[in-house]
Automatic annotation (TrEMBL):
Entry protein name: PucR family transcriptional regulator
InterPro entries given in the database record: CdaR-like_regulators, PucR_C-HTH_dom, PucR_C-HTH_sf, PucR_dom
Pfam families reported in the protein's UniProt record: HTH_30 (PF13556), PucR (PF07905)
Domain PucR C-terminal helix-turn-helix residues, every copy: 461-519
Domain spans labelled Purine catabolism PurC-like: 37-136
Domain of life: Bacteria
Amino acid sequence: MSPPTAPPPLPGLRRLLGQPDLGLRLLTPEAGLPPYALDQPVEWVHSSDLADPTPFLSAHQMLLTTGRQFAEVLTDAFYVDYVTRLRDRGIVCLGFGTEVLRSGTPDALVAACQSRGLPLVEVPYETPFIAVARAAGDLVAELRYARNTWALGAQRAIALAALRPDGLSATLSELSRQLGHWVALFDMSGALDRVFPRDTFAGASASRGALDRVQREAAQLIRRGQRASTSVSTGGETLSLQTLGRRDQLRGVLAHGGPGELDQASQEVVTSVIALAGLALEQNSALDRARGLLRSGLLHALLGGDIDLVQATSGEMWGPLPFEPVRVAVTDPAPERLDALTEFLELRVEESPGHLFFARQGGLVVLCLDAGAGPLLDELVGFGLHLGLSDRARYRELPHALAQARQALERSHEGAPGIVEFDVISRQGVLAFLARTDASEVGRATLEPLAAHDAVHATDLIHTLRVWLEHNGKFGPAATELGVHRHTVRARVSQAEALLGRDFGTFHARADIWAALLASGDDAG
């Protein structure tokens, strides 16, 4: 393999100063200038004698002047302000043409440029400004040709790499070699999938810090669920990230980093790789969809009790089924996130075979999990999902466990995204579900006579009845909690019996009123 290549260097100010026929002389010693000040690109040369030419200038330009604006006797502050405006505008160099209006360059201008870190060159009388502009233009044209030549060669090398057996890895490796940058691919969970050079994030704490930063950025892009790109600077590097895949069906994130920002030619090379990588991941996704159909069929067989068939097929494809007893988790992601979720789960199966089996069932995703599934469930909650989780069960009990998980999922949707375990809601009892069904209106209707009486006579029959039933129909403990005499409680309960036409001495009547209280969910009716 040929040695690593990198884009041709930009034609900096140093190359322009090195043109012998121009005779340019640097007046600000390089040692007193910021690092790389003479290596900045010169995209154009402009001339002006205005006191403030910045409205007509752009960054990366060189300004030439004959000093007409300095004809009057000026203070040092004027020179400093003039130079500061040029530097803030992004001007890379100031050229002073001597012997046109005055002999030599003003000392105050030299001092101002030195203090503000702006290179200052003296342009001799024999060198017309147009010659400096032409020389800079020739350098830009030379660069453009070199960049185009490099970009064509880089894209050709990348296209050949894509034809190798592991086309995606070979493509990313070639992109890294061509740019002289590291290149990384992050999967749907935001985890690092592969990086080139392979030891990029190994060892040095600075490298690990860059990895942590780019992982956070990749995870944020993925959570948005839309095509996006971003650039951040950290540790002297510029990190660029771009999502891969279609809108709402993202496949991952491509990231690269190195010193400085990429120019247009380099960006075009990166764009071609993004297209190739996206195509490769889409092809992988088509294969994943075929696997998904197989998974759904295996889940159907598993629910039907054909455990041996599923165990054998799963063992050949992904690894053994999770050890019994398992817990069933169910979630119902938005349709546009369903593909992304299954791709994420496929990655987790590849990382830890034998700990997870999952499949789609209509719009649901059903997971069979072993005892160590806590971290995976936390990751799923991080995707903003509602999940229902069953009790532990053996595979022959899977239909029952699936019903539990679906019931827990329904309860989960009553609150924020998160996990609801069936064990939690089962401990609340059967009657606790009445408040979550249409029985609430029936309960309110049952208690209406008591609610009307309380409203008209300012009594407290409903609340008294609830407290009395909570104390198993005992008047003394109920009176203590209510802060009244037990005979008062007895009188209120008797009045409630009369209004409802029920005998609370029977278990059936007590159970029916207790259910009405739970279903109505309101002591006041």
